[in-house]
Write a structure and sequence with these properties.
By secondary structure, the protein is of the alpha/beta class. The protein is built from 9 helices and 12 strands. The structure holds NADPH dihydro-nicotinamide-adenine-dinucleotide phosphate and oxalic acid (OXD). NADPH dihydro-nicotinamide-adenine-dinucleotide phosphate is lined by residues 67-68, 92, 96, 140-145, 162-165, 194-198, 200-201, 222-224, 248-249, 272, 274-275, 309.
């Protein structure tokens, strides 16, 4: 039994130590030193090079070192018969909520305006609505979306959450399904995207959505870049319908040097750093899931390829 590990920039000690501590053995392989490919039962990966996973004929599970899995499924040759187990991690969830709270407050209190005013030495206060009057809509009510809703609710914001299937979160208006999308968007003073990238969420944030959002609203994207139509967002920013956007994820990463996002005055760019995988807790989670698989029990959560997440 061997584990294939691939994550550029990882600290191998965390991973090797966690695998050993969980009783998963110490035979850790890499793409550069794969040994006999047939020995490898489990792959633990972030952004594996395209075409390489399929060379391992006996893979039982692929463990994603991230909550999203497009870094694996973008590869047209990934072995789609092998179940993917994605990352669930309370530290990642906490980091995501902190990132979202930061930007919600930034927009709610007009801090971007103050930064521009400081550059012009201008002393001018902007009135902001009470928290209870500010409507924040969260797209996606999975591990990250639910936590963000609860924390924003506790700060007194008027929070609406949207998912495919019905949810109930006290003090949060939870809507579900395509028919409710219109309401979610129309009432979004601040729209937060925490959807996985699937066929139905690709380009979901486009001109028709921006035109229906309230004048002068804000967008925070932490899901995946391809859920936004970039030209449409830039037009909405230019027209002022969207006053500001905090973008953490992009269609192409790293964000190309010639992207207009870099210098648009309404855009704040962060380098896919909203909730970076915490190596220590992620290694422990994945090692525990591998141990389950070694004991012929089911690791979780498994990606449902029909749904795409
Ligand atoms: P989950 O799988 O836990 O939750 C996904 C949510 O999206 C679910 O509530 C699901 O609905 C909902 N959803 C999916 N498709 C649709 C749809 N078509 N219409 C309505 N709702 C939909 O994901 P996570 O919360 O763990 O992560 C979300 C995404 O955030 C990841 O896929 C990844 O892309 C991104 N991410 C980004 C990070 C960063 O640093 N920027 C870090 C971590 C994650 P339902 O509950 O009904 O199934
Ligand atoms: C993830 C991510 O999916 O970092 O975890 O985007």
């Amino acid at each position: 039994m061997a584990i294939l590990f691939h994550w550029d920039g990882a600290t191998p000690e965390y991973w090797h130590g966690a695998f050993e501590a969980a009783g998963c053995g110490i035979d850790i392989r890499s793409f550069d030193a794969p040994g006999d490919h047939a020995d490898v039962d489990f792959a633990v990966v972030w952004a594996p090079p395209a075409g390489r996973l399929k060379a391992f004929p006996n893979l039982k599970y692929i463990f994603s070192i991230g909550a999203g899995v497009t870094h694996i499924t973008f590869d047209p040759d990934w072995p789609a018969h092998v179940p993917i187990v994605r990352l669930q991690d309370r530290l990642l969830v906490l980091d995501m909520s902190c990132h979202i709270i930061y930007w919600v407050l930034h927009f709610h209190r007009f801090y971007a305006r103050y930064a521009r005013q400081q550059a012009a030495r201008q002393w001018l206060r902007h009135r902001y609505p009470e928290n209870s009057e500010r409507r924040v809509s969260i797209l996606g009510l999975g591990q990250t979306g639910q936590d963000a809703c609860i924390r924003l609710r506790d700060l007194g914001f008027q929070v609406t959450g949207w998912a495919r299937s019905p949810k109930a979160i006290e003090g949060v208006s939870c809507l579900a399904g395509d028919a409710a999308f219109e309401t979610v968007v129309r009432e979004a003073d601040i729209l937060v995207n925490l959807l996985p990238l699937t066929d139905s969420t690709t380009g979901i944030l486009n001109a028709s959505v921006f035109n229906r959002m309230p004048e002068g609203s804000f967008v925070i994207n932490c899901g995946r870049g391809s859920s936004i139509n970039d030209d449409d967002l830039l037009s909405a920013l230019d027209s002022g319908r969207i006053e500001g956007a905090a973008l953490d994820v992009f269609r192409e990463e790293p964000l190309p040097e010639d992207s207009p996002y870099w210098h648009h005055p309404g855009v704040s760019v962060t380098p896919h750093s909203a909730a970076p995988t915490n190596e220590r807790s992620a290694a422990e989670f994945i090692a525990a899931q591998i141990r389950l698989a070694m004991d012929s029990r089911a690791p979780a959560p498994i990606v449902d390829l029909e749904r795409g997440y």
